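Typical record was shown:
=====
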Amino acid sequence: MKSGRQRRTEIIGRRRARSRAAAPQRLRPWAMATDGRSRDSVPADPAKLVHDNTYGARPSFYLDRPFTCIDCGANEVWTASQQKWWYEEAKGKIASAANRCRDCRRKRRMRRSQERRLHVEGLIARYGIEGAAEKLQLDIGTLIDMRARWLEP
């Protein structure tokens, strides 16, 4: 068993390691374009960004960002093109950032869909299809379509 001081020291060490891994990259002069941004950067389209009442500046370009997956601990890179898609096409919030690798996102999505399926099946078993549709605030046709998709091989 560890003392509070030992646990605090371990926590601080993990935080420092995480902050070193997520430290912003400084651009070297040979890696910069003439306008001061990286050669690998992707320009942002401010008209497509969602106004979400943030006080920070909106990005004028995107750079590759390294991150550590919170589930498996793998070191990954959130590419500039992925960021452009997330912020401009999917309308993600400017303050959000990637925190799970692709495999962990897929696993989480599958787990959540299975949990949702079990929940809906339990409601149908308990209340019948009409009662479950009422509880879920869906029409019966939508619920029947959902069950048909789940039963497909």
Q: What stands out?
A: The radius of gyration is 23 Å. The longest strand covers residues 65-68.
